Amino acid sequence: MALVFHKLVSVEEAIKLIEKETNGIGPLGVIEVPILESINKVLAEDVVAPIDYPPFDRSTVDGYAVRSIDIAGASEIEPKELEVIGKVEVGSHPSIEVKPGTAVQISTGAMVPRGADSIVMEEYVSRKDNKIKIYRMSSPGENISMSGSDIATGDVVIRKNTQITARELAVFAGLGLNKIKVYRPPKIIVYSTGVELEQPGNILPHGKIYDSNGYVITAMLRELGADVEFRGILPDNYDKMKDEISKSINEADILITTGSTSAGYGDMIYKVFNDVGAKIIVHGLKSRPGKPTAIAVLGKKILFGLPGFPLSAMMNLYNIVEPIVRKMMGKGESEKPKVKARIPFRLNAGRGFTELIPVQLVWNKDYLSAYPILSGSGSIAGISISDGYIVAQENREYFEENEEVDVYLFSSSIRPPDLTIIGSNCPGIEVVLNGAKIQNSRIINVGSLGGWNAIKRGDADLAGSHLLDEKTMNYNIHMPKLMGLEDKVYIYRGYSREVGILVKKNNPKNIKDVSDFLRDDIVIINRNKGSGTRVLLDKMLKENGINEPEKLIKGYTYEVKTHSAVATAILQGRADAGISLRAMAELFNLDFIPIGVEIYDFIVRKEKIENKFVNKFLETLKSEEFSKELEKKLPGYKTLKESGERIYP
Amino acid sequence: MALVFHKLVSVEEAIKLIEKETNGIGPLGVIEVPILESINKVLAEDVVAPIDYPPFDRSTVDGYAVRSIDIAGASEIEPKELEVIGKVEVGSHPSIEVKPGTAVQISTGAMVPRGADSIVMEEYVSRKDNKIKIYRMSSPGENISMSGSDIATGDVVIRKNTQITARELAVFAGLGLNKIKVYRPPKIIVYSTGVELEQPGNILPHGKIYDSNGYVITAMLRELGADVEFRGILPDNYDKMKDEISKSINEADILITTGSTSAGYGDMIYKVFNDVGAKIIVHGLKSRPGKPTAIAVLGKKILFGLPGFPLSAMMNLYNIVEPIVRKMMGKGESEKPKVKARIPFRLNAGRGFTELIPVQLVWNKDYLSAYPILSGSGSIAGISISDGYIVAQENREYFEENEEVDVYLFSSSIRPPDLTIIGSNCPGIEVVLNGAKIQNSRIINVGSLGGWNAIKRGDADLAGSHLLDEKTMNYNIHMPKLMGLEDKVYIYRGYSREVGILVKKNNPKNIKDVSDFLRDDIVIINRNKGSGTRVLLDKMLKENGINEPEKLIKGYTYEVKTHSAVATAILQGRADAGISLRAMAELFNLDFIPIGVEIYDFIVRKEKIENKFVNKFLETLKSEEFSKELEKKLPGYKTLKESGERIYP
C-alpha cells in the first residue's frame, strides 16, 4: 500500500464513520452472570418482580400481634388485657389465629398470624404468665410491613439498560434472583508497538524507553468494565506483527495498538491493518494531541492504531475508544464530568486543530483556576498530575486571561488539596512538606514570576521565589512593589542553596570558572531565560566582560528548564559544563565548582496567613529537625537565621 | 451473658470507640503488587524517579537534526543547504555526530545525535539525494524533548498515600517500575444470619425471605478495593455459628454479620462475639435506621453485627464500616460526595435519634428537590431508587417545606433523568415509556395530589392524576383552579382503567357488590386514604347508605398502598374482597366484579410542553401501537378518543 495523503477528520466525524462502517455500534449480546459479577455492567432486560416483597405481612418490631379493635382506647391509665395464646418465630409459617381477646407474641421479621391487624411494641406491654396488659392503642396496620408493599409481583423494578451498582443487588437478591442478564462486555486486546520500547522491570538499553501506554489503556478500559487483555509489545517485524494481529482480531471485538502510526515508522500499522483484511476508515485526526491515528473496521470489529506519545494515546482513548466501548456495553452516552474554571494567563491554542490541553485545578477563593500543563504529548508526568483537560476548537486562536472554560475531568470527584504551592521549582519544598506532615498538597511549577502572578490572582497558598534584585543584591523583597502587592503579601525567609558549575567527575577538562566557557573545547548546557540561574550566569559573564555570549560560547543557546536536566546533559556527555545546584552534583555524582549561594523564599497573601497548613509549612522552616533533614537530603542547602521569619514587610 | 441495658452511642462515638479499643486504625501493612493490580489501592511509599524521563534527548517530530546556527536566517526566499550524512532510527543509540554544514535525518522519538541542537520538521525541507534545502530557521532546542525535562532522576513523582488510578500507571511504567508498594487491603469476611433467610436462586418457603444484605455489603466493600469474601448464611445454631466465626476471625481483619441483633433473636450475635473472645464495645446505635448494631474488637480485628433490615445494614456500612475500611486502606478520610437540595414538603424527622432518610433527587429548574423515600428500613426498592440520604440530627423535630439540606450521594456522579413523572402510581406509565422509547426516566409515586404539588413546585415534567370531581363527575379538570395553577398547566388525556371488586377465583363467597362487605363472613382489604380507589369505595358505600364503615365492615381499616397489594391479600387468604383494577385480577388469577371505569390523565406545566421527552410521551398516547400494547399488557386498560389530546384549558 502506497502512502497517500489523506484528509484528517475530527473526533466526531471519526465516531460517525465507525458507526456507519460497522452498521451501528450497540450492545454485543446478552450473557447471564451471578449477581455479584454484574456490578458495573448493564442490565439487558427489565427486572419484573417474580414475587412480592416482602413476601408476606411481617412484623417490623418485637411485640404482640393483636386485633386493633380489642385494644381501642388502651392507655397508661386504662390498659387493655389480652391472653397470649402463642408465639410466632421468625422464619416460620404460623398456623395460630388471633381471636377476640387474644394476642400472639411476635419477633421482628416474623409473619403476622391470621386475625391480627396490628403489632404492639414490647415496650408498651407488661406481661405476667400468659396475660398481658397493653398501655397504648395501636392502629390497623401499625408495625406491619404488608406483603408486596415494597415491591409487588409483576412490578418492573429495575429497567433494562440500568447500570448496575451494589444497590441494585439488594433488589435482585431480595427477589430471589441469583443470576441476571447483562450485556456482554466487549473483549479488547491491547498491544504496544515500537522498536524503541522496553518492558518495565527490564534494564533500559540506551536509546530505548519504557512502554507505558499498554498499562494505562488496559487499566482505563477495565475501569469501564470491559474485558481487556494486554498482550505486551508487538514484535518489530512486519510478518510477525501481521500474524499476531490477524490471530487476535479473531478473538476480540476491539483491537488497540499504540505507536508506529507516524510517517517515520513507515506507516507500519496502516499496512498491517490493511493486510489483515480490515478497511481503513480514518488516516489521521484533526486534533492535537492525537493526530497520527489509524482506525479500521473488519465486519463489526474495530481496530485502533493510537499514537505512541502517552498523552496522545490517552486523549484518543478518552474521546473515541471510550464512547464506542460504552455503547457496546449498553452504557448510553458518555457524560464526562465537567467543571467551570478560569484560565490564569493568556494561552495560545487551537489554530486549525482541535486541541486538548491537560490542566491542573487550583481552588481560588471565588472560582477554580485551570493551570494548563504544557509539558507536551510525550509527557507522562503531565498525565498523572492533570485533573482533566480543556478543549480549544480549531477556529480558536487563544484563551484570554481569566476566560471561563469547561474542564472535562478524568475522575468524577475532585478534592481540593490542603496546600497549593505555585512558583519556582525547588526540591527543598518536598523536604518542608515532609517535615510539616502535609500529605495532600499540590505543587505547580511556573517559575518565580509565575508564582508572584498566582499570588496576585489568589490561586496560590504559597509561592516559591528566588528573584534577585541586581540593584540591591537582595532576593525577592523588591517584588511586592513591582507587582502592586505592597499591602497584600508577606514574604517569609526560606533557605539558601549553593550554586556552582557542574562538570564531569574529576573535572577532566580542568574548568575553573565561567571564563573557561569561552574555550574551543568546551560545550555548555544553559538554563532557560527567566530562570534565576540564567540571570546569575549572564551577570557573571558580563562581569567577566563577555558580551554576545550566544556567538562566543558553544551550547549557550541549548536551554533546559530544570537543575537536574543540566546535570543529566553533563553526565551523558552532551555538554561539558553548566550552572546548577550542589545538590544535583551530589545526586548525579558530578564535580562541583562553587560560585555562590542563592536564597529561596516563600510568599503568602495576608489573608491566608491564618490557614492551618500555611502555618504548619512556615513553622517547619524554623525547626531544628527540618534544618538537619534539609542539609542531609540536599547537600548545599542550608536554613538561615531568619528561616521561617517574616522578612517583608 | 445476661441481657443488660446498654447506652446507645452515636456513629461518631462508635468510630472513636473502635479507634480507642484497637489502639488506632491505620494501614495494615505494605505489599508489592504488579502495577496493573495497583488500581484503587494506595501508594505506600514516595515514588522517586530512578531514571530521567525521557531518558535521552529525543526528537518530537519527523525531520532533520541540525545545528541551529547553520540555518540561522533560513526562509522560503533564502533557504539554507545542508548535507545529509545519515539517519537515526527510533530505538537506536546513534554514533554519528552533526558537524557544521551537515544534517542527520531523524524520526519522532529517536535520540538526538551529538552536535545537533535543533530538529527541523520534514515539511520545511526539500531533499534531493543527500542534499537538503531548509526553508525556515529553527531555534536551539526546537522539537527536542530534553532528557529529564518531564521527570528528572531523584524527583518525588508520586507521593506516598496517593490513591492509584490508571493515570498514575503512566508514570510507574514510564519509569520502568513493573511493581509498586501499596497498603495491603483488609481481608473482610461477610455472613448473613437469620433463620428466616433463604439463598437467592432457591425456592422460597412460606415465612422466609431471600438474603440480600450479604450481596450488597460484599459488592460495596469490593468497590472500595477491600478483599472481601461472602461466606453465605450462617447456620442457625449457636455452636455452629460460634465455630464458624471463631475460625473466620482468625483469617480476617474485619468480620461482618447482618441480622440476629434485635432482642427477638435473643441477642445471638452478642453472645457469639462475646464467646469467641471479642470485647463488645457497642451495644446499639443512636441512629435510625441502624439501631440494633453490635461492634466488638479482638486485638486489632473488628467484628460488626449489623442489623438485618437492608436499609439499616447499608446505612451502617456507609457510615461506620466504610470509614474504618478506608483508613485501613490508607485512603484518608472518606469525603462523601454531597449536593444541596430542598425538601419538597414538611417532613417529621429526628426526635431523639439521628435519622438517615434516603431520598430521590429531582431536577427543578432552579435547584434540586430531594423527595424522601419513606418505605422503611425493610425496603429493598428504596435502596435501589435512592440517590443518597439526608441526615436529621437527634435534636431536630422536622424539616420545613423547601428547607435546604445536604444530600450525601451514594455515587459520586448523578445524572438527571430525561423525564421525571411524579404523582399517582399506575402500571400504564411503563407501557407509555416503552412505546416512547424513553429509557432514562424517573417515576416518583406520591399519589395524585402529590403529583399536583410537584407540578406546582416545578419538580415534575409530568404528573399522573386520577382525581374525580364528585360535583361534575369529571376527572382532573377541576384541579388547576383548586391548586391556583389555572394559567400555568395543560392537562392531557391519558387512558381509562377498569375498576372493580377482586375476589378469589370462582368467587367462593358469592360476592356481588359492595353491600356484601357488610356480611359477617367477609373480611375486606382497603386502600390508603387519599387514593382515588378509596374515594371511589367511600362514595359507593355512601350511595348504599352505609355510614361508619369502620365499625360495620371487617378489614375496612386494614389499608394498603397499591393495587397489587390488594390482590396479594386476597390471593393469600388474608382478605376476601377489595377494590382494585381488572389488570391486577388477571395478573394474580383472581375473579373480577366490574364497578366502573376511571380516567388517568397527565399534567404538564406550560413551559415544559416543548421538552423533547414530554412530547414523545404525549405523542405516544395517541399512537395505534400504544393502544394495542396497553390493552394487551394491562387487561381493562383502554385508550380513549382524546388520548394524548389537551383537555385543559
TrEMBL record, chains A, B:
It comes from the Archaea. One of its GO terms (molecular function) is molybdopterin molybdotransferase activity. The keyword ATP-binding does not apply. Residues 189-327 form the MoaB/Mog domain. Pathway: Cofactor biosynthesis; molybdopterin biosynthesis. Keywords: Molybdenum cofactor biosynthesis. GO terms for biological process: Mo-molybdopterin cofactor biosynthetic process. This is Molybdenum cofactor synthesis domain protein. The lineage of its organism: Archaea, Thermoproteota, Thermoprotei, Acidilobales, Caldisphaeraceae.
